[in-house]
Amino acid sequence: MSGDRGDHPSREVLERFLLAQLPASEGSRVLRHLLAGCPGCQETAGEMWQHAPGAQRQPAVLDAELELRYDEVLDRVFKRVEIAERSIARERATARELLATLEKHPIERQRMLLRNSQRFRSPALCEQLIEASHHAGFADPGRARELAEIALELVSSLDSEDALGLSAIQNLESRAWAQLANARRVSGDLAGAEEAFERADRSLCRDGAGLFEEARLCDLKASLRKEQRRFPEALCLHDRVIAIYQSLGQRHLLGRAYTQKAMVINEIGDYDSAIALLRSALELLDPKEEPRVFLVARHNLIWSLCESERYREAFALLFHTRPYYLQGGDRMNLLRMRWLEGNVSAGLGRAEQAEVAYREVGQAFGELGLDYDGALVALDLAILYARQGRAPEVRRIAREILDVFNARGIHREAIAAIALLYQAAEREQARVTLVRRVSSFLKRARSDHEIRFQLEDDAS
Amino acid sequence: MSVLDNPLLESSLEAFLECLRPRLKVLFIRYRIPPIDTEDIVQQALLALLYRWRSVRDPEAWLVGTVRNKCLLYWRDQRRKLYDAVDTTVLEWVAVPLSPAQEAADVRRDLMSVIERLPPKCRSLLSLRYGLGFEPPEVAKRLGYRTSSISKVTTRCLAALTRQLFAAGIRKKKGWE
Fold first, then answer.
1. What is the pTM of this model?
2. Which residues lie closer than 8 Å to A306 by C-beta, 6 or more apart?
3. Which of A369, B64, B142, B154 lies at 20 to 30 Å from A392 by C-alpha?
4. Is B135:B96 a contact under the CB 8 Å cutoff?
5. A413 and A453 in contact (C-beta within 8 Å)?
């Protein structure tokens, strides 16, 4: 090491060097000096480097002159933002009208209007289309896809020079791809969803303001991974969502993210962890803001408690949750509540109450054409019968499910599992363990058509 | 949608911004962002907030979190600029014959002395880059990296080299802590 070389740079010069603010020739001199190993300057620069911005633990001290300079900047920005807010409000109002106009036409005409008419080229309309696709969601997956597709067509025609700027347009594009990916997932096109998620990921602008989009993207992608039963990846994505909402101080959204993650943990079968996470979620969720999500968290908590055979806790929580189910008024939710009531009653040894609940729910699912759900409830009832030694009833249920599955063309492995149960029931050997095994297999097989039913020696 | 339509925000946008002013100033001071550079940070964050108003649950927390993230990214960018400046300067030194010859030899010796103290992967990469004048795709091929990831690996090695330039100060600071 050459040691000290000539004039030492001042503290200010070293600071400007670290900020890469020196002209090239001066920067080169400082670098040469440091490279030569001047201990004093290395130490000063090292301290400055180490003194990382944001790492200071002491409160920031406001210097009057500096404060004045920050105020000047903030005054300018606030003024511009207030003007922008009025303009965004106008754009959004116009976008609502444009969406209403678009929706009057068939899809091909909508595409043509978006391609040819300048007035439709608005980021706000693109946002509305993405939101409309989101709302169409499960109710009309086909429409959700169409809306996401035309949102994508629209975003590609937007001018990055407008008020939004390039990064916001990129984030809008990312949202549109993510929405399309989700619509594809819901309609069963998992490969298409995968491809769209890749596009969404590539479009995302990671500039700090795109964190919200990243959280949404990770959240939707985690749903795909869960459906693909790639649980470790789903959990990593949920952890990213959680980290983002924590950093942005979004308590309610954090609660929602915990709820989503708990669903994956439940799938893995780690009910104790799911219970702990759902309890944390419920502390964060605001029932007034999103009653549906709050109800989902409560419902899943009760379900996890039942799976852990903690029926007394489940019973108490179900009692306090009943008003939320009734408040929602949605028939499916009420049926899910009744199903849980059956499970809790069965767990508490109240067989008659459980039987009535299962029968009611099974009949309602039948009326709604929800055969698969109907089969799952029927299997819960079969567990109850098997426990009571009512073999003929178990056989009858197995026969009914088999007939429905054959008639509806439900996939082969599910039919094979039920057939096995039926054969065992005919031999009066369908014990609780076997019915349970078939039931949990059918729950998994619903989203995983690749799995095979395996009968272990002790099952029958 | 006007901010005033949103039930989450009971007062006007102006009042909301004024409430935020002291918190933003504290953040900028804590993160040592020069006033001139705060304009883009705060404007981008506020515009992003306006566009997401309906999905953001706690606008104030969201904005403070976003500005904090942007401050961190600001420093990440600043550091990257420093790595680039160090890299450009070193590349110039090793490319242009320095006069007198002794000076060129001194530079190479001092540079190699610093590189020697880096982890093996960075030693190999920077020796190829500065010692033999290899371009990134050649370095990737030689060291078995994917061409797509060589830029990221190079940045990491440049960061290690830059830190090594003032390692004495960094070590001493760690000792105090």
1. 0.76
2. A314, A340, A343, A344, A347
3. A369
4. no
5. yes
Return the structure tokens found at A297: 């968290």
Percent of chain A whose predicted confidence (pLDDT) is above 90: 51
Percent of residues, chain A, with pLDDT higher than 70: 93
Closest CA to A216 of A190, A187, A191, A250: A250
**119-178 in A: which are within 8 Å (CB) of B?**
127, 163-165, 167-168
Query: What are the pLDDT digits (tens) for B135-148?
Result: 999 999 999 999 88
Yes or no: say if A211 and A247 are a contact pair by the CB < 8 Å rule.
Answer: yes
**For position B63, what pLDDT does the model report?**
93
| Torsion sign, CA atoms A369, A371, A372, A376 | positive
Q: Compute the average pLDDT of residues A440-446.
A: 85
Q: What is the pLDDT at residue A53?
A: 60
Check whether the bond before A53 is cis (ω within 30° of 0): no
User: Nearest CB to A209: which of B26, B38, B45?
Assistant: B45
Number of Cβ within a 10 Å radius of residue A460: 16
User: What is the mean pLDDT of the segment spanning A253-281?
Assistant: 95
> CA distances (Å), B108 to each of A2, A28, B117, B132, in order?
12, 14, 15, 12
Distance CA A430, CA A437 (A): 11
CA closest to B174 among chain A residues: A50
Angstrom distance (rounded) from CA A339 to CA A359: 9
Q: What is the pLDDT along chain B (177 residues), one digit of tens a residue?
A: 444 355 444 458 888 999 999 999 999 988 888 899 999 999 989 988 988 887 788 899 999 999 999 998 898 888 899 999 999 999 988 876 656 677 778 888 889 989 999 999 999 999 999 988 899 999 999 999 998 889 999 999 999 999 888 876 565 544 333
Closest to A237 measured CA to CA, from A261, A255, A270: A261
CA distance readout (Å), A409 to A341, A403, A413, A444, B127: 31, 10, 11, 18, 65
Rg (CA), chain A: 30
Whose tokens are 């009066």? That residue is A428
Distance CA B94, CA B86 (A): 12
Q: Which residues of A135-154 are buried (b: 16+ CB within 10 A; e: fewer)?
A: ebeeebbebbbbbbbbbbeb
* Cis peptide preceding A23, ω within 30 of 0: no
Q: What's the token pair of residue A323? A: 């008003």
Taking an 8 Å cut-off on Cβ atoms, the answer to whether A85 and B50 are in contact is yes
Choosing among B33, B43, B90, B176, which should be mutated to test the A contact, i.e. which has the most A CBs within 10 A?
B43
Spatial contact of A395 and A366, defined as CB atoms under 8 Å apart: no
Query: What local confidence, expressed as pLDDT, does residue A3 receive?
Result: 43
User: How far is A405 from A338, CA to CA, in rounded Å?
Assistant: 24
Residue A458 CA to residue A433 CA, distance in Å, equals: 8
